[in-house]
Design brief:
163 residues, two-stranded antiparallel sheet, 6 helices, 4 strands, elongated, Phage virion morphogenesis protein, Phage_virion_morphogenesis
Length: 163
């Protein structure tokens, strides 16, 4: 019994092969995508300080009466986690081909992020956790969109960073 067949090989589709090669090359260095993610996350973290909410939208615990009195008449008197603005301004990111790291080198930031016991001039206080770093569902979706846009540009032959 005779038959007929159609064979489809990679070499039969040079445009497809070119797109796959571009895609492979693009995934070897994700620095531009990680930079776009970092810029996006810096904006959302800054927004958290304005809204005084965690990455998951939970309002930060209000500051104590002691802290309110201490802050009266200062720059950040009506804002939680804002005294001089140093911690907020110190948040930055480092993007490489393999990862994105975002955070702050301000030592006291860890106590604010996770909560804990602290000593202020001989007085011990328990600080409530007021997380400002983390990924919300919306941010995870935005990161996915950034990566997909970055990869789509490789397939289409366009260059540049994702927006």
């Amino acid at each position: 019994m005779g038959g007929v067949k159609l064979t489809v090989e990679r070499q039969s589709f040079p445009a497809l092969m070119t797109a796959l090669n571009r895609l492979e090359a693009r995934t070897k260095d994700l620095t531009p995508a990680f930079k776009s993610m970092g810029q996006h996350l810096l904006r959302t973290i800054d927004q958290r300080f304005d809204e005084q909410k965690s990455p998951h939208g939970q309002p930060w615990q209000d500051i104590s009466e002691f802290t309110k009195e201490k802050k009266r008449g200062t720059f950040g008197q009506d804002k939680i986690l804002t005294d001089t603005g140093r911690m907020r301004r110190s948040i930055t990111y480092i993007a490489s081909s393999e990862r994105l790291e975002i955070g702050t080198n301000v030592v006291y930031a860890k106590k604010h992020q996770f909560g804990g016991k602290t000593d202020i001039r001989g007085h011990f206080f328990i600080l409530a956790a007021r997380p400002f770093l983390g990924l919300s569902t919306e941010e995870r979706e935005a990161i996915t969109r950034i990566v997909l846009e970055y990869l789509a540009k490789a397939v289409s032959g366009r260059s540049g960073s994702p927006s």
